[in-house]
Specification:
heterodimer; A: about 120 residues; alpha/beta; Rossmann fold; five-stranded parallel β-sheet; 5 strands; B: about 900 residues; Sodium/glucose cotransporter; five-stranded mixed β-sheet; 35 helices; elongated
Chain lengths: ~120, ~900
């Protein structure tokens, strides 16, 4: 069973994502800020990360950069979640190596589809 | 006996201070940050009018002739009232013509006549020397009185060798001083900024000193004005002496003295220097025209009381000219007499400094330089060498003028009282007034008229005032005063042509001005002006309307045909035809002479096309006969004066432009910043709105898509949707509040209310909520009632927000919140504190920034879970509301619970 790491500082958003991923048949771990997200990855590499950008402490971009800096996580699928929805941020996220970029509020079905597609691509 | 050393030290210290001020003023002028660019300094510098004569002599004159001394100050007041017309014109002319002194002014008006300039300089030298003598005398006498008191000051002037005479040394010291800062460098405009600054300072010193004596006399020696006047009234002889009828010469005496002071104020070389030559901006006249008369009122306020007090206490035996000094001395004071001495010294030195500089400028520019230039030796020298010569001449002139003043003082200074010497000089200066004033308004006044008027007026002055003065001091046989020279009674100096019973000054003024004006007008009517004189006369009389000068400057002749051909060439046939339009029957070969008006019109038309100077040259090329001589053409082509004015205006405009563009740049910067803030705000708002919206949409979709959801989960998810919707609407409400606050459209309903009741109400409102979270809420309200003006709903919103925040940030384990209300001066302070970790000092202002989320130091994310997070708008809104109500909201350390403390302060409502 694929493992999805959900990183967001809004408890209700985490709750909804957790439910959605579980319903889609994935195991879910959660983190509420950048530091704990990195800890979760270190504890046991997830198969996919849903990563919010504005997090308390180190931001989602920093988390992304650090994950990509580690060769073991170079191909880890990461989907950025953001409430900013600005084109510059999308480009920045993609440049830093995000696999996809989802603007809040998002369509739950589309998000689940994206997650499934990315996980299917992983060898 | 007072120590001479102390007095001398103080006096020299004062002179050194003056020098420092002057040097500072010059330094600032060189740096382009003028000290004297202020109308107040200008007005104070004009107060150089008040010399030692005013300082000591006014009281002396008041004891003899009652309030007549006031006329000496009414004259200048009158002149200053006319400043917007008369003095403004003088300033305008002087700056356009680069006038350096009154001699230069008169010489320039009458065709730059060097002989006339020399004449004025010579008369000034003769007429003003007594006045300088008077200042030296005042310094010496006041020093002697100060040092010898209570013994009478004995002055044995003529019996002593000059090196034993203090005034000789005073003159020398002053000469050195004036050379040091009057002739430091040459300036085209002859402005001495440092000197003006020092003079303005001296004006303050003498005023302060005189007022001190006045206050001392009136309130220390006597028990106020009532006491003094009462005691004077008890002595009819004394009362009569100070009455209005004590004025010599009666009504004519009044008028004579007024005219004398009025004219002298304008024509005295030093007044001309400060009023006109040193004027840096003619707009300064506006303030000076009331400030200077006010100064005169202030310095004359105590003259009569001091005179009365002197006569009451010292009697007739004492010298009234020294009352200012002897009154405080009689009270055995140490400091005040010294201050008075310095005041008198400042009055005397300011006069001597300005007068000597003005005279030395005249002597060098109008007397010596023209002679040297005539010898042609100087022509070979370069400009630098010339400047060196000029400075050298001026320095020598300064020494000579002061020595002359000393000689006059030593030889005949004793015969006259202070005021008398002053008036003799005033009458001499008045002789310049007709040539100057009539020349400014009547274009027809000629050089010959001015010169003859000046000579005649001065001779009459010498006969009726100066020579009798010599006679009275024993240098001449005084018999002719009574019988007239060679027994000719109608030539008696004090009763010329049998005019008896007049005050000697009015008498002298009448005859000298009659001769002066009579010859000036009479001779002018029958003499011709040279072309340059005509030009200058026009430039002077039309100084306020330079554009009118175009006409009638042409007195040469040309034929209409020639003029037509010229215009044709430059303007074309059509324009030429228009100019000649009113003249019918023109032919190209017309030999009739062109009228001056037509030439002027032609020049105007050419100016429009080619510019002033070229037009002048072109017209000159066809005008023959009595054409302008080379110098006049040069003076016209030398547009320096005009250029200076234009430059000044350009300078002003460019400064204004620079200022405007700087303002625009700043405004632009501000707009850009505002724009950036707006973008940031919009981004933040969108972020904040998206967050609850994301939860709402996600759960709504989950509820829609997942049919087989357990009931409790469904209920939980619905609850989340509702909560997040509420959060969303609250957020929208807050954003709207903030927008209203920032645009100033927040509608508050301010009314008188009791903050105590409101605080209790708010506490009740949050009570159950706090209880749910287990927060212990403590309330400490000191006053019975706290009347403030505010909007009750909004204030409650603020207090609830504060309580809510405190509850959120209070200690996790044992949360405590404390609300207190105290009176502080005329304000009420409501403080809400918690026992949480507090807010770091550098964060205390940032919590009022929009969307700022307070983070607890070292807080773990787990612990934050479940704590309701704010929008980050509550505190900025609260602060905005409180500010709208005239209060303040800030963060400080909690005094009781150790956490954060938010303090709201509101002013107490005025008693209803």
């Amino acid at each position: 069973m694929a493992k999805v790491l959900v990183v967001d500082d809004e408890p209700n958003i985490v709750l909804s994502l957790e439910f959605l991923m579980q319903q889609a048949g994935f195991e879910v771990v959660t983190a509420e800020d950048g530091e704990s997200a990195l800890e979760r990855v270190a504890e046991g590499t997830p198969d996919l990360v849903l990563l919010d950008i504005s997090l308390p402490g180190i931001s989602g971009f920093d988390v992304l950069e650090r994950l990509r800096a580690d060769p073991t996580n170079a191909r880890l699928p990461i989907i950025m979640l953001t409430a900013h929805g600005r084109e510059v941020e999308r480009e920045k996220g993609m440049a830093l190596g995000a696999d996809d970029y989802v603007t809040k509020p998002f369509s739950t079905q589309a998000l689940v589809e994206k997650v499934k597609t990315l996980l299917a691509e992983v060898p | 006996m007072r120590s001479d050393a102390v007095v001398l030290t103080v006096a020299f210290g004062y002179l050194a201070l003056l020098f420092v001020i002057a040097a500072w003023g010059d330094r600032r002028a060189e740096q382009g940050r003028s000290l004297i660019g202020s109308p107040t300094v200008y007005a104070l510098s004009i107060a150089v009018y008040c010399t030692a004569w005013t300082f000591y002599g006014s009281v002396g004159r008041a004891t003899q002739f009652g309030p007549s001394f006031l006329l000496i100050y009414l004259g200048p007041t009158l002149a200053m009232l006319l400043a917007p017309f008369l003095i403004r014109k003088m300033v305008r002319i002087a700056s356009a013509q680069r006038i350096t002194s009154i001699a230069d002014f008169i010489s320039a008006r009458y065709g730059k006549s060097s002989s006339l300039g020399a004449l004025v300089a010579l008369i000034a030298l003769i007429g003003i020397t007594p006045y300088i003598a008077l200042q030296l005398k005042a310094i010496t006498v006041s020093h002697a009185v100060l040092v010898n008191y209570p013994e009478a000051a004995e002055l044995r002037l003529a019996d002593e060798p000059f090196w034993a005479d203090k005034s000789f040394w005073v003159a020398l010291v002053l000469a050195v001083f004036i050379i040091l800062f009057g002739t430091r460098h040459l300036d085209a405009s002859e402005r001495h900024e440092g000197m003006v600054a020092a003079i303005a300072f001296e004006s303050l010193v003498k005023l302060a000193a005189f007022l001190s004596v006045g206050v001392f006399t009136l309130f220390v020696l006597f028990a106020g004005p009532g006491d003094l006047f009462g005691r004077v009234a008890a002595s009819p002889e004394l009362a009569g002496r100070l009455g209005l009828d004590a004025v010599p010469g009666g009504a004519t005496g009044w008028v004579g003295m007024l005219v004398l002071a009025f004219l002298a104020f304008l024509a005295l070389p030093r007044q001309f220097q400060v009023l006109v030559v040193e004027n840096v901006d003619e707009r300064h006249l506006a303030r000076a025209s009331w400030l200077f008369p006010l100064y005169l009122v202030a310095i004359n306020l105590f003259v009569i009381p001091i005179a009365m007090a002197g006569l009451l206490l010292a009697g007739d035996a004492a010298d009234p000219d020294s009352f200012v000094l002897t009154l405080p001395l009689s009270a055995d004071l140490e400091g005040l007499p010294l201050l008075v001495f310095i005041g008198g010294l400042s009055a005397a030195t300011s006069m001597v400094i300005v007068e000597t500089i003005a005279l030395s400028t005249m002597v060098s520019n109008q007397l010596v330089m023209p002679l040297l230039l005539r010898t042609r030796r100087l022509h070979r020298g370069g400009r630098g060498e010339l400047a060196g010569w000029l400075l050298g001449i001026r320095r020598v002139a300064i020494v000579l003028i002061l020595l002359l003043g000393y000689l006059y003082h030593a030889l005949i200074g004793d015969a006259y009282s202070l005021v008398t010497i002053g008036l003799v000089s005033f009458a001499a200066a008045c002789q310049f007034a007709p040539a100057m004033l009539i020349g400014m308004y009547w274009r027809g006044a000629t050089r010959n008229g001015a010169a003859l008027g000046l000579i005649a007026g001065t001779l009459v002055w010498a006969w009726t005032l100066l020579i009798p003065g010599f006679a009275q001091s024993g240098w001449l046989d005084a018999g002719f005063l009574e019988q007239g020279p060679w027994g000719l009674a109608w030539l008696r100096p004090y009763a010329l042509f049998g005019l008896e019973g007049w005050d000697i000054y009015t008498h002298a003024l009448l005859w000298s001005l009659t001769a002066n004006v009579g010859l000036l007008v009479g001779v002018s009517l029958f003499s011709r002006q040279s072309p340059l004189e005509q030009t200058q006369a026009a430039l002077f009389t039309e100084a306020m309307h330079p554009h009118l000068l175009q006409t009638s400057l042409w007195h040469g002749q040309t034929s209409r045909g020639e003029l037509r051909a010229l215009l044709d060439r430059y303007l074309g046939a059509a324009a030429t035809a228009r100019i000649f339009a009113d003249q019918d029957g023109e032919a190209p070969g017309d030999e009739r002479p062109a009228a001056p008006a037509l030439i002027a019109r032609a020049e105007q038309a050419l100016s429009g096309a080619l510019g002033n100077a070229s037009a002048r040259v072109l017209i000159n090329s066809v005008v023959r006969g009595e054409a302008l001589d080379l110098e006049s053409i040069l003076s016209i082509l030398d547009t320096t004066s005009e250029t200076l004015e234009v430059n000044r205006r350009l300078e002003q405009q460019s400064q204004e432009l620079a200022r405007t563009s700087e303002e625009l740049r700043a405004a632009n910067e501000r707009l850009r910043e505002l724009d950036r803030l707006k973008d940031e705000f919009v981004a933040m708002v969108s972020h904040e709105l998206r967050t609850p919206l994301t939860s709402i949409r996600a759960f709504a979709e989950i509820l829609r898509d997942s049919q087989a959801l357990p009931e409790e989960k469904r209920a939980h998810f619905l609850e989340v949707v509702v909560k997040e919707s509420q959060r969303l609407s609250r957020l929208i409400e807050e954003i709207l509040d903030l927008a209203r606050l920032e645009s100033g459209r927040l509608t508050l309903d301010p009314q008188r209310l009791d903050l105590v009741a409101l605080a209790r109400h708010s506490v009740d409102a949050v009570h159950h909520m706090q209880e749910d979270r287990g927060v212990a809420l403590e309330v400490a309200i000191a006053p019975q009632a706290a009347p403030v003006v505010g909007d009750p709903d909004r204030l409650e919103q603020v207090i609830i927000n504060l309580l809510d925040n405190a509850g959120k940030f209070a200690d996790e384990g044992e949360p405590r919140v404390r609300l207190s209300l105290v009176r502080h001066k005329d304000h009420y302070r409501l403080a809400v504190e918690d026992n949480g970790p507090g807010i770091a000092a550098e964060e205390r202002e940032r919590v009022f920034e929009k969307f700022h989320q307070i983070q607890r130091p070292g807080e773990s994310p787990e612990k934050r879970r479940g704590r309701p997070s704010g929008s980050g708008l509550g505190l900025p809104i609260s602060r905005g509301i409180v500010a709208h109500l005239g209060g303040r909201l800030w963060v400080e350390e909690a005094p009781h619970l150790g956490g954060a403390c938010l303090v709201m302060e509101l002013p107490e409502a005025p008693a209803s």
